[in-house]
Automatic annotation (TrEMBL):
Species: Desulfoluna spongiiphila
Coiled coil location: none
Stored InterPro entries: Metalloenz_LuxS/M16, MPP/UQCRC_Complex, Pept_M16_N, Pept_M16_Zn_BS, Peptidase_M16_C
Family according to the record: Belongs to the peptidase M16 family.
A GO term for molecular function: metalloendopeptidase activity
Name used for this protein in its record: Predicted Zn-dependent peptidase
The protein's required cofactors: Zn(2+)
Swiss-Prot/TrEMBL GO biological process terms: proteolysis
Amino acid sequence: MTVDAVEEAVEGAMTGAVDKTTLANGVRIVSRRIDHVRSVSMGVWVDAGARDEAVTEGGLSHFIEHMLFKGTQKRSAYDIAKAFDAIGGQTNAFTSMENTCYHARVMDEHLVTMADLLSDIFLNSTFSEEEVESERPVILSEIGMVEDNPEDHIHTLLEERFWGEHALGRSILGTRDQILAYNREDLVSFFSHLYQPDRVLISCAGHVDHDEILSLLAPAFEGIKARDGFPVREVPTPSSGVSVLSRDIEQTHVSLAWPGLPVTDEMRFASSLMNTILGGNMSSRLFQEIREKRGLAYNVYSFNASYVDSGMVGVYAGVSPDKLTECLDVTQHELTRLCEHGVDEETLAEAKAFTKGNILLASESVDSQMARLASSEFHFGRQLPMEEVVAQIDAVTVEEVRRVAEMAFSQEPAVAVLGPDPSEAKIRKVFGL
């Protein structure tokens, strides 16, 4: 597909109208009708996550996410699972640093059942003591699963190093001691405190009418009562330095981070394109230099993590222990080259086409459109027209890409290393720490 073809396809990808209703208590319901599909995706979102936990509350948002599938006043955990399976529905939930979401996708003929199920688990979960005890070892197993996966664990170590004592530096899952200590009252109290009506958003995309959504959801959700104030989100201060964890495994895993941009920053598109060029796809500089030309790593990439008030730009690679220094040297060289020389117009045009192509592919998924509705509402208070997004991507200049690279990579990084006998001295020497 040519660059022009990508632009045409993107411009026509999001044609369905968006409707929004705010209930009297502040709950928002947003929907997009898509006539050419037969499925419906619905998400019940809370603008609250792990960063809203006090230091003594680590992991409660995620624990609650599990518990909302463990039984309501009229359905057992088995009843909930069986009801979703009976309609061929796909359902799940996730907890992030700033949001929690309970979502499902079904054929349009099962919309009523899906709406009833999601409403029931969100509004009527009982948090029974028996289910709390049965779910506790499941979460402990999840903590162990992350620790057993070096690529997952290295990012946890990096976040601790980068964000320090701030909530963004703590694991979404909490610690083992915390999970073992929580009881039903802790979960219910936290749920009541954070699940405020003005933090609740229901987004729906697919073959559905907004009025039908309102008739199914409004009577139930308008009953949520406002409570005491939501905890204030403190702006974090990123830090640099090196964290090493010795582990007897095959590879050395290394991840680096520098300060990035908030999710609504006007330079966010330049940062996204910079990330694509640096290590965001197979033709990116890090992938080509580290994997394709030198064979130093199988898995290498860069990434952006953006929040409402802050952000992180990062790089990850998994290498043989004897190749770590060379990999870091190449990484440092590419960062310096990007800061000092930037990119040419052709490279930037290719990154723009890649980005817009990904937007097009995502637009064909009702799940992606459902999530996009929620993200736009949370971050901008409105739906961003696709034409506006495309125009902002196209408007990014080579100088803006160089500038966001310089803003990030001219600062000292935070570095996390996991593997057999990682050398902190070598890492500090490469980056002059």
